[in-house]
Amino acid sequence: MSEHGLNSVRIGIRLLIHAMLTAGGPLILAAATSDPGIANEPWLHPYTGPTRTDIDATTLDGKVLCGYQGWFNTPGDGTDFGFTHWGQNLERTNGSRRFTIDLWPDVSEYPPQDLREVPGLKLPDGSPARLYSAFRKGPVLLHARWMRQYGIDGVFLSRFVGEASSPPRSRHVNQVLANVREGCHREGRVWAMMLDISMGRNATTTTVMNDWKFLCDQVKVREDSRYLHHQTKPVVLLWGLGFKDRPWTPKQGEELINFFKKDPHYGGVYLVGGVDPNWRTLGGLSRTNAAWAAVYRMFDSISPWDAGRYRDDQSMDHIRKNVWERDLAELKQSGIGYMPTAFPGFSWDNMRQTKPGKSTIARRKGEFYWRQFAIFKALGIRTVFVGMFDEVDEGTAIYKVANDIPVGKYFATYEGLPTDWYLKLTGAATKMIRGEASWSEKIPESLPFPRE
User: What percent of the chain has pLDDT over 90?
Assistant: First the structure.
């Protein structure tokens, strides 16, 4: 599939999924605290448990930060969403069920009480195949522990504003936030919000603003000691302005950016724009209205969404020459920051119901992933976004993934490599980006992680 087609379909599917989950219209979440039960939810209180300060939370500089979806559910997790984001009709054993993930997580270290068996599905050793829910605290705390053990700085927590404003789904979204916040405290990581404004045709700036107001007034994210700041400002990654498949106008984009940067109470944010890699030329999947050029340049930092835009060394070099190098040449003169995306590979055959391997961008046992970091280091880039930590839907996850997959089903694997291989690579790449390890074009022979 072409670059344009791949990303257009990806965006379309995500919009469809989130439209279904958020049916029912927007809700100003701050008003929900009038319910005593809701007022006792953990996200409405500051975190007061054990904390560590291993990673400096005052700067983006020298950081490698993973996107974290946290959108998975299982039956019995305390919600009514079934196996959301793992597949459809997985509770059934007949032909109507299907998976929408392309990687199977290695759940051998997860708390047993946080796992759910998939009916009728077995692993090669005959044991039941089980999945986790991010609504449960245990899996998310384990993920944060892995980040510390493998030297990963922290996460941008992906928060789909359409879900956050939906009465049925907001409880899950906010519980995951509380879990991530606690994990970052316990393991000395940093976290920041990635507000994904993929909201369909009914998108309004008011909905986005109200969600940030809720996060400031009720959750008090800005006051959390592990929340990432830069230049003394709380960091927010606003993802989705300017894409052709999203309905936002330049006027709305300007309104949102001014709100986050200049509002007297809710502003003062260091605002990163998650945009199409062709933002500078208004090509690719960027909208072509000339007014977008000025809107993009209102951000404090630019984060081009590179995932899926190249699939081999030749196309990666093309992006280097025509996107990364030229972006840097302009942005260094204007003082705007830069945070490109590294991704380990790609696959969504199960989601798209295509022939196994058809959509694959080969990982090449990690060399594809490592080469991106080597280029970023050579270009002097000091901050990198990893897409993503737990994205098994599109096969871009870096966390522990199983090589022994359920019997009779297709899933991609880590090619027989250790299940923690991409955690090791990410930690080693972080040291290289920071200058704590020498530049290496190839994966180093010795990877120092994990550590206790």
Answer: 88
